Queue: 4 jobs
Job 1
Amino acid sequence: MTLWGFVTISTNGTDEGAESLGKEPTQEELAALARFRFALRRFLAFSEQAAADLGLTMQWYQALLVIKTFRAGDHISVGELAEQLMIRDHSAAELVSRLVQAKLVKRKTDPSDRRRSLVIMTPSGDRRLAQLAAVHLERLRENKDAFLNLFNVDPE
C-alpha cells in the first residue's frame, strides 16, 4: 500500500518486502521516532485547542493556511485545495462552503475556466489566520529543540 505517495508497505500481515525497506531500526532510532510522534501529537493537540479558542477547527486553520500561501498567494481552486489537504474534492467543496458561511473566504468563478471555483481569503480570514499563525510560530519557537533534537539535528 502506498501512503500519500511516500512509502509502499505490505498490508497482508506478512514481513514480505520488509527487506527492501533497509536495515532494521536500532533501539535509539525507534526511541527517536517515539519521541517525534509524541512531540508531534502534543503540538497537534495544542494546534487544535488554539484553533478552537478562535472559533475554528484545525481543518479550517489548515485550509486558511493553504489558501493564503498557495503559489505565493495566487488564487487556489477547490480541487487544488483538496489535493493540498489530502481530502476528496467533494469534501473540499463542503469545507469551502463552511468557510464562506463563516465569512473567512469567498468563492470566485475562474475567468479562464468557468467550471472552476477559486477560493479567496476575506479580511476576516486574513485576521484569523494571522492570529493563529502567530501563536503556532511562538509555540514552535519555544519548543524547537523538541523537534530538532529528536534525530540529533543541531539546532544552530
Job 2
Amino acid sequence: MKILSSRSCRSLTLFSLIAVLVFIGCQKEGKTSQNKKITVLTPVTFEKTIQAHHGHILIVNFFATWCEPCRKELPDIISLSKEYASKGVDVIGISLDKNGTRVLRSFLERLKFPYPIYLGNQALMDTLKIQAIPMTYFYDRKGTRVKTLLGIVGRKRLSSLIKALLKVPSS
C-alpha cells in the first residue's frame, strides 16, 4: 500500500475542489456554439432581470422546446421582437425545459432568437405560479406587469398589445 505525501494530498484535494466547482458551474449555465450563455433564473434573478429593462416595454415569454403550442407561437414573437426593438420594446424568453441547456442549445441555434433566452428553474415556476405554457407576461415602462396571457398569442393580438403599451406615456 502506497501512502501519499502531504503535498500529493493537497494537490489531490485542490484538483477535486476545482473539479466540483467546474461541475457546479456547468449545471448553472452553458454556452451555445454562438457563445451565448444560458443563465438560470431564480426568483431573485428574475426580478433583477425585469428591473434591468426599466424604461422599456418588456415581453417575457415562458416556453419549452417540447411544447407544440410554444413552438407554434415563437416565430411570431421573434418577428415582432425585431419589428419593435427600435421602439423600446424588449423581449426575453424563459425556457422551462427540465433537461436544461442540453436540449436548449440546439433549439436556440435552429430558431436564431434575436433576444436573450434564460432557463427557469422549479423555484421560479413555483414563485410565479406557472402551471401551464406558453405563458406571456407584459410589463410597462415602469416595470409593472400589466398583462398575463396563457396559451398561444397570435401575431395580431401581440402586436395590438404592444401598440397599446407604446401609447401609454412614460413618466
Job 3
Amino acid sequence: MENLKSLYIIGILFFINFNCNGINLDSLENKKIINHLTVFYRSYIHENVKMPTNDYKINLIKKKYCTNKLLQKIELDDLDFDPLVNAQDYDLEWLKTLTIKEIITKKNTFSVSYIDNFSKKRIFLSVTVINESGSYKISFVKY
C-alpha cells in the first residue's frame, strides 16, 4: 500500500513538473510579437491623427517597425491609402477596438483588426513579422 501511494505521488509530481516546464517557446515569442505590433499600431495611429502631422516622426516609427523592403514597396505602389491601416484617414477610436491575434496556419503572421467608425465595419489586415537583427519588423501587409 505504501509503494502504491509513493508511485501515485511520484506520478503527480512528474505530471506537474512536465506541465510547468513544457512551455511553448513559439507561444512566448508570439506574445512578444503581438505586444510589439500593439506598440507599433498605437504609436503609429497616435502620430497620424495629430494636426499638423509630423512626417519625420511618422517615418521614424515606420523605419523602426517595418522592413526597408516593405517601405520601398509601399512607396513604389503609390497608393491613395495607407496599407498599414488599410485607410486614407486615421481615427483614435480605432485603438478602442484594435485586436491583434496570431494566425495559427501561417508562421509569423498575425491578424490586425479594428472597427472603422465611419463604415461601422471591422477592418482586417494580415501582417507578417520577421526578426531582423534582433528586432521584430513588419515585412508584409495583406489588406
Job 4
Amino acid sequence: MVVWDYALETGCVAIDAEHREIVQLMGVVHEAVEQGNAAQTATALDRLTLRLAEHFEHEERLMAACDYAQTLLHKEAHATFLADVAKGRKALAMFGLSDTFRQWAFGRLVTWFRFHIKALDMGLGQEIRRHEVSQEGAVAQL
C-alpha cells in the first residue's frame, strides 16, 4: 500500500496537499484491489483519474504564471501518465483484476507518481517559491 512520505514535499503547500490527496486515492484503489472488488476498483480509479487531471491542470496554471522553463517537459509527462492510467483502466474493464493489472496498480502507478514528484515537481516547487517571493505571493492565488 502507498503511504505519504514527507521526502516528497515540494515546499508548495497547495501542491503538497494535492499530492497527499492523490496518495490517499491510490490507497483507495489498492484497498479495492486487495478486496478483489473490480467494480470498486474501477470507481476508485475513475476518482483518481479525475483528481490527477485536476491536479495536473493546477500545476500547469502555476507553470504558466511562473513562466516555468520546464513547462513543455512537465506537460508531456502529465499527458503520458494520464494515458497510462487510461490504459490501466481499460485493462481493468477488459480483464478484471488480472495479475498484470495488480502489478500495474501496486507498481507502476505508484512508482511513476513518486518519480514524477522527485524528478519534476521538486523543481516546480522551487520555482513557485522563487516566483512568490519576487511577485509578493501572486502565484498563491492560483
